[in-house]
Amino acid sequence: MSLTLAHPSSCLLFIVLLFSGHPSADATFIPGIRNAAARMLNRARKAKQAREFLYTHNIARAASGVPPLRWDKGLARFADKWAKQRKSDCSMLHSGGPYGENIFWYRENSMWSLGKVVKRWSEERFNYDSKTNTCASGKMCGHYTQIVWRSTTAVGCARAKCSNNRGYLVVCEYNPIGNYEGESPFDRIQ
After folding, report:
1. Looking at the domain 35-175, which fold is it?
2. What pTM does this model have?
3. Can you tell me the distance from the alpha carbon of 147 to that of 174, in angstroms, rounded to the nearest whole number?
4. Which helix (H) or strand (E) holds 63?
5. Of 51, 54, 69, 164, which sits most exposed with the smallest number of CB within 10 A?
6. Which runs of E-coded beta strand occur in the chain?
7. In the chain, where the domains are located
């Protein structure tokens, strides 16, 4: 059976019907249909998250005059794998991987959307002095500079729920990596 549902509300309707408990025409449940519906719902959720992450990144990049990023599923898988590895302790440790990386943690009862996380990183622009290529004393600006790094072309992000109600960990991976010591995020590559 092949089914293509173009609109997210079509997917939701399909899932509601699947989980409504109505048997098929011959009074038996279709084997595996619940698993297929769960996978479809998960894919739709991840696609929505990807759009929110990408949109907010590209708003920040447009405001800084750099080209937009594209979504990279491989980077998103890397981010997801790292976030899941950290979910037991919810530590904001960097993966040490081959990509640029931003990490954010928030409490479970906080009202953080994925876009709001990226917006928080991009607010570090107020701590960045482009004339001296430095952060204000005692302030962070590296999350912002990674978001707007001119040579970075792709991003992939993930969120994982931490164990024992410790909150959520958000990880974004950037390729090519940015934040090279002594270089401005706005310098053109020669």
Report:
1. Pathogenesis-related Protein p14a (3.40.33)
2. 0.80
3. 8
4. helix 33-63
5. 164
6. 70-71, 100-106, 128-129, 134-135, 154-161, 168-175
7. 35-175
